[in-house]
Amino acid sequence: MFIVERAAYPQEGVGKPDFSRAVSSALERRGITIGYNQTLKIFGLVFTAVNTGTHTAPPHATIMTDATAHFIAVNALIGLTIVNVTDGSSGVIIANTETTVTVAELTDGISNKWNTGDAYTIPSPFHGIVPPLAPEGILHVIDLSTGFPSPLDIPQGYAISLIAAGALVTEDVILWGYIDGYLATGIGVFSAGVTHYENKILGLTTETVDPAGDDPHTIDVTIQNLGLGTLQGGVELFGIIEPLSTKPLPTTKTVRCKSCGHEETVPNETARWICPGCGQLNIFYDLSRFRGTR
Questions:
Q1: Shared-domain flag, residues 133 and 233
Q2: Domain count across the chain
Q3: Is residue 27 part of a domain?
């Protein structure tokens, strides 16, 4: 004899329960669900030459011209800072076209003007955005909620598990995972030109070496360029921090300015933060309310 549990389901049409949303979601991807007292962490790096180049026109005090540029839209860069890497100067953008950027003035440099061939960059306020990585180069991933590079400190009484990783890169890369400074695992090798996503039941975790959380730990992830060319693209890793019979995590976090390195304690919900040290906008991930993917 079979016993069937009865339940009410929304109807579409005549006599057909609508499971389409649940079924399509399961087919598309496996989700992430955050339980009570768990906290999501996202680490990542984006390697890009976007908004970098050289001044191709004759010298000018305020207008940088890059004949090869394709800036996203007219005046879309207003308010961002452009850095004259060669001169050491910088200025706030007041206008832009597809190939030019205008500042009110350049300051804190040698000549404080654009000379032909000067290199420039327009830093993104998002953390984890870095220049392309040279062959054999190695970088630590960045905590996108605080702006700090790994290793990440895990307090006594807590465990962290890295459970998923995704990558889309132009060169082959390898990710290494460390616990307390010791190499613990190879997280994965990701091939160039292929979209990768891994969702492991048990990835890199401190719980396997300290199930009760008796000691504090560090966890670190590095990415290495295995290719012959400079690496562009991006890598993200998803982790969960959870208490092991201890009180919840603090309601504040310490963030780090991408431009000047100033550190400050702010509420966990902080996503947009103007650095009091240099006045630059920083954008962090706010994961305080995240409970699961939809």
A1: yes
A2: 2
A3: no
Greatest alpha-carbon span in the chain: 88
Which residues touch 201 (CB under 8 Å, ≥6 apart)?
none
pLDDT for the residue numbered 31 = 59
**242-257 confidence digits (pLDDT tens):** 888 777 778 899 999 9
Same domain? For 43 and 56 the reply is no
Q: What angle do CA 195, 201, 203 make, to 5 degrees?
A: 75
The dihedral over CA atoms of 74, 75, 81, 85, expressed in degrees to the nearest 10, equals 30
Q: CA-CA distance, 193 to 23, in Å (whole number)? A: 29
Burial grade of 95 (CB within 10 A; 0-12, 13-18, 19 or more): middle
The rounded percent of the chain whose pLDDT value lies above 70 is 85
Enter the DSSP assignment of 207.
T
Tokens of 176: 């290494």
Instruction: Specify whether 269 is located in the same domain as 229.
Output: yes
Domain that holds residue 100: 52-121
Are 108 and 230 members of one domain? no
Which residues pair with residue 93 across a beta bridge?
A: 103
